[in-house]
């Protein structure tokens, strides 16, 4: 096998030997310490390999290596058994080399597979194991039976590994192993020249019979594939497997994909093996009958020419035969078949034109009878080996039409032609529709008196072919719709209904390919409105029938023809069909809708362009719509009136059958995008369209320049409004599609939009916004089921919003915000309280947080404010969190401009002033953090100061609402509020710090009663002490250099010399914060004293005061001394009269001097204070420190231990 299929790789044997020797040496080196057996085996293998290499010629080296495979691979197998990662890596790499070179024999393979299975169980080098088993199965029948099943089991087990990379590799390996297993069957059948099984099969044959009787007849590979197929079905049914032993679980989706791959890629397996195919009962094996003619065919048809009866006899035979077929077809049966085949032979004859004309006249009568077509199908198409007469008839008409058109190009016109009448133009030759072509008038079949045929004009034959194709289209439609016809008796039994479906499907499928080809041939050559309308009507009928019959190939081919001719000549294949998604949908039927005769039978494309220049009116001239593959093309193309008619037919066909189009939407929407671009129709933000002449506003978007070089004629301007209306209806009617069809439409529009995103990324040309506009319109009309489509559309629009192209990003943001607002309005109108749907609607707005462009942020905020205004009373907690988070992200983003910050803060402020009452209590914490974020931002100091005021305002609302919620939640909100204000107290801007400090003191003073003792403890330690520590660090690190900027945003002010450096400014902050914390501590001392750690808090507070007092700054030291005094005694003027104060000072001075000597020795360290007994902490003893202080009337009642701490600070100061 070739390397591409995983077999033996052609390479230099000596290079392989050298590489294997290196691997063995490396394996020996790695194993010399802990794995002596591996080392010894490696050295032995090296000797063996060297001997084989030196004693063997190049021609026999491969076979000698294969013979010595067991000894060479033995150390590798031992290396795998050690489970040592390094040894396993080396061993598996060497095994892979051996597999690629093809030296592994059937004896060693099962042993290696067993070791690979052990490695899998040990979860060792799983990726290497997968690579190795893939090479095993890819080799030419190296592993079969149980070894093959074990390889597949290994891959299946690794598909459930914990490592994502292993899972992906295992999934790919499973697919490849299944494919290799069935590929072997194809090769085995080719070697054995196994014939295709003859059908039909007996109804008695079932799977049990096949297994019992034919199991031994199957080849090795066929048996493996048969067992694998059975086990695959067992896995799908979740039953135990008989061949894939050890598989306990399997992904259902992967099993179905494998089954689909087998059925799609290996049909010959089912055709050649009765075990794999049991349903080939419709294979035909009929016998041909002699044609009913005046003379018989000779015994040697190859050597003798077929003789036809004379003209008079032939004409009468045709008339009789036609009568028999039309009126007595149920009686003559196979004679009707013989007669039709004879007519087809006449049609294909090139000896005389009259023979073809006579055949066309007969066929014209036959195809115009729907009942006759139905009978022909029901009688002959379902019998074994019977020809499909309808297919032969339509194909014969199409082939003759192609031949006649080619001949018309070469022939000279026999008479002058009036080109104003309906007809066809072939090169320079105009062929009118013949007046005698009708269902009641003949020419040849009425020439009963003539002995020889006269001259038949070519136009008559082409006209007959045209009439036949039109009539057969109508007849097929009548056959399919017969069950719904009011003139027919409706089917009453299930059998009749099923028979009708079967026959109508067969009639359409047999005729559709050739019929479509013939109609498109005539459409290109047609030059008159009535003829074009008839042909387009037939093409749209084929689209309807293809959707009704569910034939995707014909549906795609017919619509592809309409797409091709809706655009200028050559445009579709050059610019539209280059899209991979569209080209892939063409598949096997890509050429069905192609007009091959344009290049094969009409000499050059210039002839077609000349036809358009002469007889087709040009209605518009425009450039190519930019696509990723043609963004640099500026070629001009002309749209004709015929293109406009085809485009209208395309839109109507898509509108009528939109639910059945599935993947065909890619092609249709791409064509409409190109068509609207060339004709100058431009999209609007609401999903509608406008033209240059309409002068509509662009809905606030950046003005989009006109499509370059678009020239419209007055003939088309009047048609554009109606065409716009058709496009709108096409999208609006998507609200009637099922979910799957809607997803196809959305996927196609997203694909087109993605292509324009690529164009905008690589080119400076103007791009088309067709896809985004239609996405918005499609979404709005389907809002009643937004759960179905919301995620893919919004995800794509979010991606568009992140594009670097300004206009594209603007369109994406407008479309997304309009869609979200429309969805929210509809949700409110429905009066449904569906939290999940609200979250689904608002999730795209949250995803826009990842987009860094400011214009997108602006529209995001517009949407948020709009939703707050219209839906604030109905929003769930989760949606409120999303809205608040949007403003929070903008506030903390350093890239946000001052204008954007102001706009976002307006929303935050509006929430606090107008919507705070409806804001869920659970969202208050997030809202407070958001306000604090705007207080911290540095773009605008006014917003920071306003945010501090807003926190003060919110605190009042918290107090009002806290009574309706639990104590735990309430306390948490208060702590978050104080924490937010505390963080602003250490802002880098003095004005913000001053305002925050004042607000913190006022807020605590106003709402201190709302905090519990536990909350006060948390606030003191986590907020207030943390604030003092941050201020201390900032003050310590502050610079003493004078700055021109006052650090108040970007504004500069004249600053007093006492505040002209950061150090002086932070000194003021230190004074304010220490004063505020002391006041708060004193005010809540009665609460804090009840806690066990009050002494620790007291000591820590004393330490902050001491540190501040000892700083080399007079302002801070003086303020700290005042705070020290107030911390112990409060405000003197509020507690005692001046007289009492003076007396207290005198007493305090005397007693302090007397007491100082004793206390300096007794209480020298703060650690010793903790050893005091409870009796020493009693109050009121005049011989203690507290007793000496309590001689003052205003001294607080504290234990001695606290006074000792304070006294030490006093002495140190």
From TrEMBL:
Source organism superkingdom: Eukaryota
Domain Mon2/Sec7/BIG1-like dimerisation and cyclophilin-binding: 14-189
Residue ranges constituting the Mon2/Sec7/BIG1-like HUS domain according to the UniProt record: 222-380
InterPro entries from the UniProt entry: ARM-type_fold, DCB_dom, Mon2/Sec7/BIG1-like_HUS, Mon2_C
Tagged with keyword Protein biosynthesis: no
Keyword Protein transport: yes
Pfam families membership: DCB, Mon2_C, Sec7-like_HUS
Record's keyword terms, sorted: Protein transport, Transport
Limits of the Mon2 C-terminal domain: 914-960, 971-1131
GO terms of biological process kind: protein transport
Family matches, as SUPFAM superfamilies: ARM repeat
Name this protein carries in UniProt: Protein MON2 homolog
Taxonomic source organism: Panagrolaimus superbus
Lineage per the UniProt record: Eukaryota, Metazoa, Ecdysozoa, Nematoda, Chromadorea
